Recover the amino acids of this structure.
């Protein structure tokens, strides 16, 4: 039954344990996101400052993700994810306590958010790469889709909870709640049993060499290169979440409305997560990449043109669902196209461009919203994402035919020559 529904990964105990931890930590992230944006807006009263604070808090992901991917290949995904959860929860708690102090200095808030960004980055690549350690190859795409499903379940619960908390209590209380949800699952992840790590020839202290090796491998596979590089613009686009407190203010819907915006995004992601594996099987993983981008772009454009808050809230479900389909399909293909020894590093390149560019998108979006509006900024991002999707299809049509079956990855169209036999493993 689970296999027919596309939930094959849940038949494996280690993945079920990770999935449960995933639900709590993702809820934490969205409580934190709502509370942090609300706190900065309360202190500064400036959308541009909210964007700048988002840039600083996400800057570590931009700077350190590749090195986090290297650490993932050396030490394994599980320990890095567990350590990341524990350290991030501790810093969120400290930030929450500081936020409760009257006349909290904005500089201190942003500094603590920066350190929290560092600890989140430690586990970033491992958060996806761990799936290959928890399920067999044929269930990787199901595991990735379920991981994104957990992300959006967390978006719903965390978004609504964060909105309610900032509406009733000071933002510091919401940050402390986020800290508890983030830190508690770390022990459960640490105790998950994963296959022993194979000795790596690059286990020395060298940094640049292993990263160059991963880059070289990616460039020898044009399809893999396009899949990774095209994530840059969607990565800028997903910074929309930093603009949600600004949008809630523009629509005059307060903290409760902010919770509805975030919850609707998660609801769309939940629906897409429930059918994600089935969509990838039916249409192929390559086509699902572009289905996801088209859906997200449509939702963002609808948000930009929304005449009333209800339309804006409804359009966010398309944004959440579209980004889930895109992310799940893209990362499933990257996992399948990458040899085991480079999986963490190649995944980290994708996450660097997709999630790592969020701070840049947050800063640019905040600046644009300062002179226009959050609604205009969202609509413009939707147009940019749609443009990139069309260009990628024109540049590398082979992506449309890619799909992952029980025997590995294959293509309906003329495939490129793969650089290593591990590709079909």
């Amino acid at each position: 039954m689970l296999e027919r529904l596309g939930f094959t990964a849940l038949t494996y105990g280690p993945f079920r344990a990770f999935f449960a931890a995933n639900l709590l930590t993702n809820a934490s992230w969205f409580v934190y996101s709502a509370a942090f944006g609300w706190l900065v807006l309360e202190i500064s009263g400036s959308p541009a400052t909210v964007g700048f604070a988002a840039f600083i808090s996400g800057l570590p992901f931009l700077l350190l993700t590749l090195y986090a991917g290297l650490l993932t290949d050396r030490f394994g995904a599980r320990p890095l994810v567990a350590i990341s959860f524990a350290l991030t929860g501790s810093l969120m708690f400290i930030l929450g306590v500081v936020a409760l102090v009257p006349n909290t200095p904005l500089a201190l808030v942003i500094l603590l958010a920066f350190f929290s960004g560092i600890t989140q980055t430690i586990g970033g690549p491992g958060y996806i790469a761990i799936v290959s350690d928890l399920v067999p190859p044929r269930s990787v795409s199901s595991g990735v889709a379920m991981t994104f499903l957990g992300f959006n379940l967390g978006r719903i619960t965390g978004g609504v909870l964060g909105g309610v908390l900032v509406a009733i209590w000071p933002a510091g209380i919401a940050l402390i709640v986020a800290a508890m949800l983030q830190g508690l699952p770390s022990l459960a992840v640490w105790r998950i049993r994963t296959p022993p790590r194979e000795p790596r020839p690059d286990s020395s202290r060298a940094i640049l060499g292993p990263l160059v090796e991963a880059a070289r491998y990616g460039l020898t596979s044009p399809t893999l290169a396009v899949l990774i590089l095209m994530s840059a613009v969607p990565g800028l686009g997903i910074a929309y979440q930093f603009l949600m407190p600004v949008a809630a203010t523009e629509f005059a819907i307060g903290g409760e409305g902010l919770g509805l915006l975030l919850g609707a995004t998660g609801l769309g992601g939940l629906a897409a997560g429930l059918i994600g594996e089935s969509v990838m099987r039916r249409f192929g993983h390559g086509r699902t990449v572009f289905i996801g981008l088209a859906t997200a772009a449509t939702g963002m454009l609808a948000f930009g043109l929304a005449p009333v808050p209800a339309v804006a809230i409804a359009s966010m479900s398309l944004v959440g669902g579209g980004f889930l389909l895109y992310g799940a399909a893209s990362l499933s293909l990257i996992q399948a196209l990458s040899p085991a020894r480079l999986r963490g590093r190649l995944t980290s390149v994708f996450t660097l461009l997709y999630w790592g560019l969020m701070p840049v998108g947050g800063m640019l979006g905040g600046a644009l919203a300062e002179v226009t509006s959050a609604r205009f900024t969202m609509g413009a991002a939707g147009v940019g994402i749609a443009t990139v999707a069309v260009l990628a299809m024109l540049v590398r049509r082979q992506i449309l035919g890619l799909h992952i079956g029980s025997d590995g990855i294959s293509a309906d169209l003329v495939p490129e020559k793969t650089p290593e036999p591990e590709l079909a493993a």
